[in-house]
Amino acid sequence: MPKKEGTKLIRKVIHFFSQVKDRLLKGPPIYYVWVLFLLALIGIGVWAYGYQFKDGLAITGMTDQVSWGLYIGNFTFLVGVAAAAVLLIIPAYIYNFGPIRELAVLGEILAISALLMCLLFVTLDLGHPQRFWHILPFIGTPNFPSSLLIWDVLVLNGYLFISLAISTYLLVGIYLEKKAKKWIYMPVVLLSIPWAIGVHIVTAYLFNGLGARPFWNTAILAPRFLASAFSSGPALCIIIFQLIRKFTKFKVKDEALFKIAEIVCIAMGINLIFLGAEVFKELYTGGWHIAPLVYLFAGLHGYTGLVKWIWTAVIFNCLGFLLFLIPATKKNFVSFNLACILIVVGVWLEKGLGFVVPGFIPTPLGEIWEYWPTMPEVLISVGVWGAGLLFYTLALKIVIPIETGEMRVLGASSVQSI
Amino acid sequence: MKTEYGNAMSRRTFLKAGGIASASLALGGCGLGEKLLPGDFLKEFVQSHFKEMRPDEIKEVKQRLQKQYQKKYGREFILGTEPPFPDVLFAYGLDLSRCIGCRRCVYACVQENNQSRRPQIQWIRVLRFKKGTMNFEESEHYYEAGMVPKEGYYTMPIQCQNCENPPCVKVCPTKATWKEPDGIVVIDYNWCIGCRYCMAACPYWARRFNFAEPEIPTEELNTNLHYLGNRPRMRGVVEKCTFCVQRTRRGRYPACVEVCPVGARKFGNILDPASEISLVLENQRVFRLKEDLDTQPKFYYFFSI
Hints:
The structure holds two protein chains of two kinds. In chain A, 72% of the residues lie in helices and 0% in strands. Chain A has helices spanning 3-25, 29-55, 70-84, 86-94, 98-125, 148-175, 182-208, 221-247, 254-285, 291-297, 307-325, 327-330, 333-351, 353-356, 375-404. The relative contact order of chain A is 0.16. Chain B is α+β, with helices and mostly antiparallel strands. In chain B, helix 1 (13-27) packs across helix 2.
């Protein structure tokens, strides 16, 4: 490389980093408030983790009876959010639906943030996180293909890699003003679709394949996971995209939002049908295996810890579904956004504690031991959410100016002023 | 053919020495409540899976652990790694018509296997049923044992069933739990990452997790240890009944068999037609728990009377 070219490249790199620095450090007051708020959440989480570090998982509400709780519940929900990013990719790249196309990258960044939170949550749940290398090939002894946990580690990290690759390639292309080559990114985009679905199916199988736990041992579990993910994930996207539209120069067409809302509505409808199928088959058949379901929806032998929780979820999901279904409410932004919030919260309730905990109640020996997360456990989880949202916020601060054309490589033809 | 430990060539030793050792320094101390020398911490961190250790590695690990336990508890320990006897498959029989529900087995087990006293961990759970029922959900787990047996009730102790087809082994991501040739399902406590997937998979609720640092009064410790059995556990790992591997591989009965005041517990080698357990299987109508799951427990219940 000639010397002149070399210095030019260095200048470009320096320019890029100064752009990044400016983008991350400068913003309207609300940006500072938001980032400080997230940093505070992370700080609280780290402080609470200090107790877990010192005293172990005993500081959580988990016991031998209910040995997974809030961490794994959040993990399950967030895998769904990550998987749902694919729903923006299908219309954008396969059917070339223009309005969603620019949003697809934002969806992928959301998937990356969700995956990072997933990895944090499972790591926090381990008794010996420093022994993670035991699952690695060559130096450890991964129980592959027998253990679904190894499968999950593989598909989650693979998905993280694929999402990073696609979004980085497309964004670098825009930044450098070079046309992205379809033959390079299309195969990866196509691969990412079955992969995203696979991620969530494998996570369902993780619970699904246990004969000891009748609540999870049902063939409809993976389809239910997909349906609830494909409603809650895009619903979350709709909320986020409106915030982005409000606070940045990024244009999001109403048309795109309504298209995504259609997906949410259909997926939630299917989710509710699946739930009904599950409840009918269990309750009408009867037998000892219905105990967890009865515990969840009606309480068992006077223990009703999750009854209000799950009915809130069901009501939220049904309401959200109806608001998306009725023509008058699905085009009104107040009810439209309410529906999104109802569905995100509803699925989080249903698929977090509402899914993980009843699997353990009663125990395989019929003991009922109720679980409720402790304060440190809640604060640690809040900290993880704070970290994920901070990552997403900071990533968007770079990604959006690239997409809107405000941030370009040094010497580019179409640089706009900030 | 005698099964020996320590014959597997460790192909991982080289890789470990380099990358992991340096990574371990960065991670220093995390997750461990014990006071370890930094050098020992490093050695523990890079320690191999038990089945992949060479004989000299096993020797080194034994010495290190003995030293570590001695430092922690101020007593001398004998830590064994006896391999299984050849042509032995252990199985257990429990005579429900004799069991009185006194829970002596529970406490003998705690004592023998160095379970944590605070928080209290017990590997055996005794359920009390009304006569004529066997619905787990209607059983009492926390009955007062002051006066046993109680008229109209019978009791059923449940512990690890040491399944021939163990679901816990199937799901473990690191192969930290496995079935030995003599049929005992064991755990390498130094290899377990504490994910608790095995606890979700066990249909008999036989596995326990050390949520906190286990506490045992020094004078109550059992100092006769086996690497795969009753050696003191650390925080953050799963444990369970091993049919007292530290006893049964030295020709003794499990502690619960010895302590049972009514002789309800039977134990032995089902490959030996003259053993007590073989007599039980031949002469009693036995049943196993949750046969429909095809876990094939080596734990047989029967009513002799």
